[in-house]
Q: What sequence folds into this?
């Protein structure tokens, strides 16, 4: 395949996985929020708007935990 060193290859793979998860999260939230009009209020917020924003915040927190764990694993392996 390529003559890339294993450490460099693992680092680039981590970067690609991080970007991919972020883009997937953005795509899902964009689809739910914008295409289904849950991110915008028309007059007053509905229960579906509240559910969307709770979903948004919970999944964002989970995404950040995923990033932290993903990058923390590699630091622990090198020590």
A:
């Amino acid at each position: 395949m390529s003559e890339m060193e294993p450490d460099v290859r693992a680092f680039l793979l981590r970067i690609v996985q991080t970007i991919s998860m972020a883009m997937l999260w953005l795509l899902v939230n964009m689809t739910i929020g914008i295409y289904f009009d849950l991110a915008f209020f028309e007059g007053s917020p509905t229960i579906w708007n509240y559910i969307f924003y709770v979903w948004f915040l919970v999944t964002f927190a989970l995404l950040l935990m995923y990033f932290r764990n993903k990058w923390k694993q590699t630091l622990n392996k090198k020590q």
Observations:
- The CA atoms of residues 41 and 49 lie 7 Å apart.
- The chain has a mean pLDDT of 91.
